[in-house]
Amino acid sequence: MFPSAWLYRIANNEIKLYYRNPHSRTDSFDRMLERSDTEPMADYILEEELIQAQEELARHDQFLFFQQKIKELPLKYQEVLSLRYFEQKSVRDNGHILGKSDGTVKLLLHRGIEKLKKYV
Prior knowledge:
- The protein is mostly helical.
- Helix content is 77%, strand content 0%.
- The chain is built from six helices and no strands.
- The longest helix has 30 residues, at 43-72.
- The protein starts with a helix and ends with a helix.
């Protein structure tokens, strides 16, 4: 069993024990708010969270789009773009890994990016 799996097992067992206990009754959200003396979040905070979530979703969709477009490029461009932007490798490291000179790596990066710009 993986080290984190036993934590999930313990948590699952604790949840089951909690709900087996007849004293644990579900409570309405309104009653919980009344007892806790807390106020619900202001509308502007919820709107701000919604805007942030929508922006994050848009960035994720854009990431998936370009990831797919990179897969459609020839392998030589896929390699340098993946190492540079997904693996965060420098041009020099990229060259060592691929057995290419720094100039060749820069040229492949430039051409790969130019091909991707056609999709923007």
